[in-house]
Amino acid sequence: MSRGMRTFTFSVSVAALAWLSARPAGTQAELKVTWSPMLNLRSMDDIPKRLREPEGSAPLGLAKGEESLKVVNCEEYLKAVSAGFYPPTNYDNKMSAEFVHDCFVLRDLQHARAATASGSYRLTKDSLSQLPPILVPGARELTDAAEQAEKRGESWKQFNPTLKLTRIDVDSLNAEDDDTAYFLTLRARGDFTGEGVEQVAVFASATGKHSSWFHAEYLILSPTSHGTLVRVTDLRAPYRLKAIQRGENH
User: Fold this and answer.
1) 143 and 76: one domain?
2) β-strand partners of 167
3) Number of domains forming the structure of the chain
4) Residue 204 in contact with residue 183, Cβ under 8 Å?
5) CB 3.0 to 4.6 Å from 170: which of 82, 122, 164, 193, for a disulfide?
6) Within-domain flag for 220
7) Percentages (nearest 5) of helix, strand, coil residues in the chain
8) Tell me: the pLDDT tens digits for 130-159?
């Protein structure tokens, strides 16, 4: 098994949670941009170089109509998905998890800043009732229903009452229902939208228990005054901040 794919076996160690940080001059010590050491990033200044380093265990195949290409690093991957390329097979989709795991958060860390308001979200036993509906498998009708539930402010647990927590720590969790196993891990913390509050960048994946179905996604979540989290990124790759799509600055 490759180094990258080991990440998705749901066995994040406690040692991996000693996060790295960058603190702009004049910012209070507790208000930092932080990221997982699993990003192999020493400082934010290293991001451009990191984006050009080989990412997966093998080149990733992507397609758009009759066009196809292979990408080997995050710079190539991000350019391709922004142009409408996608994994054409279930195998390519599973292999793309290595890129989803790192590439989008590296992209967004370049523009992150330290929050100006105190408070930091941690995953807890209540997180399933705080997170919006995510990682919804299967038919278009179900994904559309999840999107509408999210717009109504429903939580993941409200949308999927059979969902149950199986493991939790402050930066990752496992959950499952009858058909699917889910994994979430926090990749970075900081103000990604310029609103002053600390938001969390998350990698999430789902694996079918009785099928080969697999899905991975990236999202940035922002806390609300009600103790819940709202998604501030688009639902589908390239997972841009919604503010960008409204024509505002990153």
Assistant:
1) no
2) 174
3) 2
4) yes
5) 122
6) yes
7) 30, 25, 45
8) 999 999 876 788 889 999 999 999 999 999
The predicted-structure confidence for 222-235, as pLDDT tens digits, reads as follows 999 888 999 999 99
Report residue 190 as tokens: 């900081």
* DSSP run (H or E) holding 173: strand 172-176
3-state DSSP call for residue 168? strand
CA dihedral 149, 159, 9, 208 (to 10 degrees): -100
Same domain, 15 and 98: yes
Residue 185 and residue 90 in one domain:
no
Residue 101 in 3-state DSSP?
A: helix
Q: Kind of pairing, strands 199-208 and 180-190? A: antiparallel
Residues 6+ apart with CB under 8 A from 229: 121, 130, 131, 132, 200, 221, 222, 223
Of 79, 109, 139, the position where a domain reaches its end is 109
Residue 164's domain comprises 127-245
| Domain-located, residue 66 | yes
In a domain, 122, yes or no: no
**pLDDT for position 30:** 63
| Count of helices and strands (H, E) across the chain | 8, 10
